[in-house]
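In this supplementary section we document a worked example of the pipeline. Step one takes a protein sequence of length 118 as its only input; no multiple sequence alignment statistics are reported here. Step two produces a three-dimensional model, which step three serialises into structure tokens for compact storage. The input and output of this example are shown verbatim.
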Amino acid sequence: MRKTLILAAALSLIGAVQADAHARLLKSDPKAGATVAAPKVLRLSYSETIVPGNSSVSVTGPDKAPVATGPIALDAKDKRTVLAPVTGKLAPGAYKLDWSMTSADGHTMTGAFVFKVK
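The serialised model returned by step three reads:
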């Protein structure tokens, strides 16, 4: 019984270490929940290098309609930061930003947050 408990504990620790090894969103501009002037570029910074060809950003407006964005690119100085130009008009209201990123190790992660435009 004791060996089984020790083995189970060890396996759970291994799983926890592996889960923490995936890239995660560290910061964004605009920040989640922030009220800002209409941004021209969305900046998403992750804990690992991102593969832009396998990644995406989409924005949905207050009327649930998609907002046009240009192709995403990596910041020239930091391959962990994704830049997404906003090519559509952002009227005042709440916007949902959905992202799906693939890190250099091949793992894909997704997330979303809301920001508001003044």
